[in-house]
Design a protein that fits this description.
This protein is mainly beta. Helices cover 9% and strands 43% of the residues. It contains three helices and 26 strands. The protein has helices at 9-12, 253-271, 277-286; strands at 22-31, 34-44, 51-53, 66-71, 77-81, 86-90, 96-101, 119-121, 124-129, 134-139, 144-149, 156-163, 166-172, 177-182, 188-193, 210-214, 220-224, 229-234, 237-243, 296-302, 306-312, 332-340, 345-350, 355-360, 364-370, 376-383. The strands form six sheets. Strands 1-2-19-18-17-16 form a six-stranded mixed sheet, with no helix packed on it. A hairpin with a 2-residue loop joins strand 8 and strand 9. Helix 2 crosses helix 3.
Length: 384
């Protein structure tokens, strides 16, 4: 047990109430029938997203490498740990109620390096597994309910989300696209072609990725991680633009040097000795860096009215997680901008450093924290 990893209520009971936090005011205007939410001069925030940390009264079990946390029924949390790999179901107190999964390709098993997300649909836990090319299905007690094949022949499927009784996913194809999948009558349907985003074809650390989410009424929010300009689309037509005010920022020589240092540390740890500078230069030559630094790390939709946008860290503050190609893990700062599309307002949520938010609902935020020793623990906050 690691009682020290439970989230201390005293540290976060006033999240969003920090006196030094700032948020931009908002101007809403119309242009050719499109609403534009545009941030302007920064001012001291008067209205923040009021969040209160909810500690676990029971001692949490040990976790290795948490990569996703999703809320379940009756206050349960469902945690995907890629180290074993396995799924852990916690009750509202944090006590372990079920643990299932395992390494392999048999029923209910996964390959750890193919895990990116989990999705909870009522009493069913869906776990996409890229390497086994399937989605494994369990009940909350761990019983295997079956699987759905997901071929990678048409491109990898990443960023799995829930949309009612269906799954929504990004397919890494040419061009990339957003698709839905029903578990009842399996078959993918295209929701949106992302060709208009003009995403780079070359992979590498910090390469621009789609930032996207789906509102409950079916509208999609899409953009690029190197631009703070998100478009809300309804059946393919742009209805709203969320302009965060930040413009493209060129990746500096210092940023490139920082990525080189991360590569050196990563290789030294794996090889057990220092790596020659010539080898690092060779790797950097073989691994093209993007022209622009990321501005946005993640986008989350809440109901039909809110869009949460996580601002990216400065490149110099990023750790080795950013070397994971095709993922924004390690990119995000503690600051989230919260656009209310109905009230036409912009607020802000600020989390403790080391927090990764995985889900946002009308009443709760779930995710995990990471301490200075790299230990991860699930966390949750209620919205007041």
């Amino acid at each position: 047990m690691k009682p020290s990893l439970a989230v201390p209520l005293a540290l976060i009971c006033c999240l969003g109430c920090r006196s030094d936090a700032r948020v931009s005011s908002l101007v809403v205007r119309d242009s050719a029938g499109i609403r534009i939410f545009e941030t302007v001069e920064s001012v001291t925030a008067r209205d923040r997203v009021a969040l209160a940390g909810v500690p676990f009264s029971a001692g949490l079990p040990d976790f290795g490498d948490i990569i996703d946390v999703a809320p379940g029924r009756q206050g349960n949390l469902v945690v995907l740990d890629a180290l074993a790999p396995h799924i852990v179901v916690l009750d509202s107190a944090g006590a372990e109620r079920a643990r299932f999964g395992g390494d392999g390709e048999g029923p209910g098993e996964f390959w750890a390096s193919g895990l990116t997300d989990l999705v909870v649909l009522g009493d069913t836990v869906a776990v996409p597994d890229l390497l086994n090319q399937r989605i494994s299905l369990f009940d909350l007690g761990g019983a295997v309910l079956g699987s759905v094949p997901v071929s990678v022949a048409e491109g990898l499927t990443l960023d799995w989300r829930r949309a009612g009784d269906r799954l929504v996913v990004r397919r890494v194809s040419t061009p990339q696209r957003i698709e839905t999948l029903s578990l009842v009558d399996p078959g993918f349907e295209t929701l949106m072609d992302l060709g208009s985003l003009a995403l780079p074809s070359a992979a590498g650390p910090l390469a621009a990725l789609p930032g996207w989410c789906r509102l409950a009424d079916g509208r999609l929010v899409v953009g690029r991680t190197d631009q703070y300009l998100l478009k809300v689309t309804d059946r393919g037509a742009v209805t709203t633009i969320l302009d965060g005010g930040a413009r493209e920022q060129a990746l500096s020589e210092g940023d490139a040097a920082h990525i080189g240092e991360l590569l050196r540390r990563s290789l030294s740890r794996r090889l057990g000795s220092d790596v020659a500078p010539e080898r690092i230069r060779q790797l950097l030559d073989q691994t093209p860096l993007p022209e622009h630094a990321p501005l946005v790390s993640a986008v989350r939709c809440v109901g039909s009215r809110e869009v949460w946008v996580q601002r990216a860290l400065a490149v110099g503050a990023m750790g080795e997680d950013v070397l994971r190609v095709g993922s924004t893990q390690g990119w995000g700062s503690e600051v989230w901008d919260v656009f209310d599309l109905e009230a036409r307002t912009l607020r802000q949520a600020v989390f403790p450093a080391g927090t990764q938010v995985t889900r946002v609902t009308d009443g709760m935020v779930t995710g995990y924290t990471q301490d200075e020793y790299g230990r991860k623990a699930p966390a949750r906050w209620i919205r007041r």
